[in-house]
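Quick log. Single chain, no ligands specified.
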Amino acid sequence: MDPQLPKVAFAGLGAMGYGMAAHLVRSGFSVTGFDVYQPALDRFLQEGKGASAAKTPREAIQDVDFFICMVANSLQATPLLFDEETGALAGLKRNASIIICSTVAPAFIEDIQRVLEEKGRSDIHLIDSPVSGGAARAADGTLSIFASGSNLHLEHAHPILECLSGKLYEIPGGLGGGSKAKLIHQIFAGINIAMASEAMGLAAAAGLDTKEVFESLRKSGASSWMFENRVPHMLDPGLGRYSAMTIIAKDVGIITQTSREHRFPLPLLSTAKQLYLSAISAGWGSEDDCVLVRLYLPPSQPDLVARQAGKRFSNPSTHPPHNVTWETIHDIMLAVHTASITEAMSFCEHLGIDTALMYDIVSHAAGTSKAFEDSFRGMKKKEWGIKGLEWGAEVGDRLVSHLLELFLISNR
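-> predicted structure:
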């Protein structure tokens, strides 16, 4: 523990939050943890000197310089900050900083600032700072962080944000900018997770060797970070849970709500949202989000992607011949990627986020894809249309043929 470093209170010791708090302790910060789940607090205390625990947010923030909020959503963050008996705000010392790392709507950040002013606490430094990268990167301090707020407040918080990040982005435009940037990134993430499930579901249902299809697509221009990360869990369910369905469903819900408030249509993401809600309704909310693939498989064969690894269907009377190949799936994925670029980057411009900055963010984070990196500049020149792509018309023609083939198969 370094006595020259500022004292920190950290609320929300979940999969990512625990890693972040523990990394701060290992980096010399004195950190008081708070979580409603007692085993998380007990585990945090094992981090040794510099780690302490509190029973309430108000107890946690006694004499700290920074209060970091990494709870699941705004419903949890509101009482954490403002509860009359246990909320953090009433106990924070003057000129302390509140860093909101949770993924929340930009409007919620504005609400926090408004309440701070109403309660006479405009001295508080509020920083909007959502994070991305998963539990492993949280634990080793290499998260992507999208920070926004006043320049003075960001400078004051820099040692902590730098400690937690591998990529630290300061988003222009004041409070809410960080959350807007995170939401744009999550459009790609939400669509790409759903796309991976649809692609592998189609491969399995078509009787293809799913492992062979994965390897072919992984090396192609239709691949994405999410595809390469999630499909191995479909091929081998024994790998365990990477990220719960409820997490991406929550993020997608925030984005679609924000888009409605702006009266901006997001048709692809809205479709993905319905898929996630269907999965949660089926009772899969706590499972890995890759189990979304079950929606595309026969109910009696939820593990068909894994069972088809290294195999092909051999009974033509049960599985009629068709022309579906991995190239079919490649073209469908490529078309979805380009449509998602149009959707996300148009919304990015609508929200006032610099598109060049957004390119840097997405291309270095989990929402990236080869199509995004290859097509971004050409599509930007054509106002996010596919006319900027050399292969746009060709893939479009093939896609019509593929969809007709799939329609005929489904009606046999």
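The first strand starts at residue 7 and ends at 11.
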